[in-house]
Design goal:
There is one protein chain. The protein is mainly α. It has 2 domains: 64 residues; 217 residues, f41 fragment of flagellin, N-terminal domain (Up-down Bundle). The protein is 68% helix and 4% strand. The protein contains 7 helices and 4 strands, in the order αααββββαααα. The chain has a two-stranded antiparallel ribbon with strand order 1-2. It has a two-stranded antiparallel ribbon with strand order 3-4. A hairpin with a 2-residue loop joins strand 1 and strand 2. The longest helix has 57 residues.
Length: 307
C-alpha cells in the first residue's frame, strides 16, 4: 500500500538534510582553514586560555623585536668602542716610536689624527641617534673638532655634552640592563692625555727633529696615560661584548618561548586534519543519503499518485 500522507516525513528528512549540510560546511571550513573555529565563540571553554596565551605571545614578539634592534645597536657600539681603543693604542704607539728613534718628526700631526679618530668614534650614531650622548640622543656628545681645541677650555669636561642618563634596555618581563655608555666616561682619560700633549706643544713648541731631554721626559710620562686610556676603553669594549652575549641568550630563550606558545595556541586552534577530512567525507555521505531519501520520498507523495 502506497503512503499518501508524507508531511511529517518530509519535515524529518528535510531537517536531517539541513543538519548534514551544516556539518558538511563546518568540516569543509575546517579543512580549508586548518582551524577549529573562526572566532572565539567557536573555542568555547578554551577561549579564555587562548586569549591569555595570545597576550603573552604579543609580549614575547615585542621582546624579540626589541632584542634584535638592541643586538644591532650593540654591534655599532662594539665598532665605535674598538675604534676608540685603537686610537688610544695608536697614540701610545706613536709616542713609543718617537722615543725609540729619538725623533719627533710628524708626531703632533699623527697624534692629531688619532684624536680625530677617537672623537669621530665617540660621535657615532645608530638609527640617526648618537650612541654615547645619554638621554640627549640628538645632541653631539663631543664638540672638540681637533686636538688643538683641547687647550681652549680649562678641562676636557667642557667638550662633552652628554647627560648622565646611561641607556637601559628591557630584555623580558623582569630583566632590565644597562646597555649603553656615556661619551665622557669613555673619552675623558684619553682626551686628557691628548690635552697634555697639546698644552706641552703650546708652551714649548712642536716636536720636530731630534727630541730634547725635556721632550723625551715628557713623552715618557705620557706612555702610561695613553696606556691607561687604552686599557679602560678595552674594558668597556669587553663589557659591551658581555652585554651582547646576554642579549643573545635572552633572544634564544624568547625564541623558545615563542615556539612553545605557538604550539599551545595551535593545540587549541589547529584542527586535526585527518579527523576533519574524515568528518567531511562522512558529512558528504550523509548529505547524499539524505538527498536520496528526500528524492525517494517525493515519489510517494499524494500529488505524484494523483498525477
Amino acid at each position: 500500500m502506497n503512503r499518501v500522507a508524507t508531511g511529517n516525513s518530509y519535515s524529518q528528512v528535510l531537517n536531517d538534510l539541513m543538519r548534514a549540510q551544516v556539518r558538511e560546511q563546518e568540516a569543509n571550513t575546517q579543512v580549508s582553514s586548518g582551524k577549529t573555529a573562526s572566532d572565539l565563540k567557536g573555542f568555547a571553554r578554551q577561549a579564555e586560555t587562548l586569549l591569555a596565551t595570545r597576550s603573552i605571545q604579543t609580549k614575547v614578539e615585542g621582546f624579540l623585536t626589541q632584542g634584535k634592534t638592541l643586538t644591532s645597536k650593540l654591534e655599532s657600539q662594539d665598532l665605535a668602542l674598538t675604534q676608540t681603543a685603537d686610537a688610544a693604542a695608536g697614540a701610545r704607539q706613536a709616542v713609543a716610536e718617537a722615543l725609540a728613534t729619538g725623533r719627533g718628526d710628524a708626531l703632533t700631526s699623527e697624534l692629531s689624527s688619532w684624536f680625530s679618530s677617537a672623537s669621530d668614534s665617540l660621535n657615532a650614531r645608530f638609527g640617526g641617534r648618537y650612541l654615547f650622548a645619554g638621554g640627549q640622543v640628538d645632541t653631539q656628545p663631543v664638540t672638540a673638532a681637533s686636538m688643538a681645541d683641547l687647550t681652549t677650555q680649562p678641562t676636557v669636561a667642557a667638550f662633552f655634552q652628554n647627560d648622565n642618563l646611561i641607556p637601559a634596555s628591557q630584555l623580558d618581563e623582569s630583566t632590565t640592563i644597562q646597555s649603553g655608555f656615556l661619551a665622557d666616561d669613555l673619552g675623558a682619560g684619553l682626551f686628557d692625555a691628548f690635552r697634555q700633549v697639546q698644552a706641552f706643544v703650546d708652551a714649548n713648541g712642536d716636536f720636530t727633529g731630534q727630541l730634547s731631554v725635556t721632550q723625551e721626559a715628557f713623552l715618557q710620562g705620557m706612555l702610561d696615560d695613553f696606556e691607561t686610556a687604552r686599557s679602560d676603553l678595552t674594558d668597556a669594549t669587553a663589557q659591551n661584548g658581555l652585554i651582547q652575549n646576554r642579549v643573545d641568550k635572552t633572544l634564544e630563550t624568547q625564541d623558545a618561548r615563542k615556539s612553545m606558545l605557538k604550539g599551545m595556541v595551535g593545540g587549541i586552534t589547529d584542527v586535526d586534519m585527518a579527523e576533519a577530512i574524515s568528518r567531511l567525507q562522512q558529512a558528504q555521505t550523509t548529505v547524499q543519503a539524505s538527498a536520496q531519501v528526500f528524492s525517494a520520498l517525493s515519489q510517494s507523495s499524494l500529488l505524484e499518485l494523483l498525477s
